[in-house]
Amino acid sequence: MPELPEVETIRYYLDHVLPGQKVHKVLHIDPRMVKTGSLSAEEIARRLPGHVVKSIKRRGKFLFLEWETQDHLLIHLGMSGRLIWIQNHEPWALHTHLVLDFEENQLRLIDPRRFGRIGWIDRGVELVPHLGTEPLSADLTSQFLVKRLQGRQAPIKSLLLDQSIIAGLGNIYVDESLFRAKIRPDRPGGSLEPREIKRLVRSIRRVLQEAIEHRGTSFSDYVDALGHPGQNQDYLMVYGRNQAECRVCGQPIVTKVIQGRTSHFCLHCQK
DNA sequence: TTAACTACCTGTTCGC
DNA sequence: TGCGAACAGGTAGTTA
């Protein structure tokens, strides 16, 4: 499930190989994946050939291929999406929904569950205006989060998953951040004290930075742009460790469903 | 405005 | 062994 560190890992690699490359053909684009933007799948396929990649951007969990025309192709990987840069003679995987042919290599989107999305964003249009602050930018401060959590009754877990507050966190990194900050995921957001929020901000940054250094977390679907799994799953403290011993106190990690999301935490370490 | 719920989707796991 | 049900979860839309 690609969250910010996984998407950033893909972006980082693609930004080394894609700029300057010209789209030769759009070999395949699944209309069911085009769920946003100003053009249909057919129109994107007609428009793209000849376009040259200028840069690869990321905002939250969204990736953008910026063209020299300053239009953008939005790609979201959803739950199970993979975006790979691969030689064009390699056979297509099952569930391949987008194939951009750059003559020698192809950029392919593979997404078994089809929760991902593709869209065309015209030049000058704001990319994803509804997204909240970038957690690794200077905009995420404890003062910002204090303000956003004030008076909120929803569990802190749900509020951290809300992309309009902080963009890029998903189930894994919210659980990990809350563990590091020693905060239970079912606490109402508005009940957090300023010192806890300060700790939470520090934890979010550290968890995300470490996950990027480990090239993301691979449980089932995620691989980077070269098809390699990440390593961060070896460093997780709570996520996916139901009933395992807490690495800090030795008590069993427990799970609880909060707003439809399985949350992992330690009853002893998190208050 | 906020909180909770639902649809989308398919591979995997579990129980019978 | 095979089948069906339940589960996993990010986003956007709906409802109260």
Alpha-carbon distance between the two ends: 27 Å
Question: Do you know the CATH architecture of the largest domain?
Answer: Orthogonal Bundle
H and E string: HEEHEEEEEEEHHHHEE
What would you call the structural class? alpha+beta
Average pLDDT figure: 90
Evaluate the radius of gyration.
20 Å
Categorize the overall geometry.
globular
Q: Per DSSP, what share of the residues sits in E-state strands of 2 or more residues?
A: 15-25%
Structure characterization notes:
The protein is α+β, with helices and mostly antiparallel strands. The protein has two domains: 4-121, N-terminal domain of MutM-like DNA repair proteins (Alpha-Beta Barrel), CATH 3.20.190; 142-265, Helicase, Ruva Protein, domain 3. It is built from six helices and eleven strands. A five-stranded mixed beta sheet has the order 2-9-5-4-3, covered by helices on one side. A four-stranded antiparallel beta sheet has the order 1-7-8-6. Helix 5 crosses helix 6. Monomer. InterPro entries: DNA_glyclase_Znf_dom_DNA_BS, FPG_cat, FPG_Glyclase, FPG_N, H2TH_FPG, Ribosomal_uS13-like_H2TH, Znf_DNA_glyclase/AP_lyase, Znf_FPG/IleRS. Keywords: DNA damage, DNA repair, DNA-binding, Glycosidase, Hydrolase, Lyase, Metal-binding, Multifunctional enzyme, Zinc, Zinc-finger.
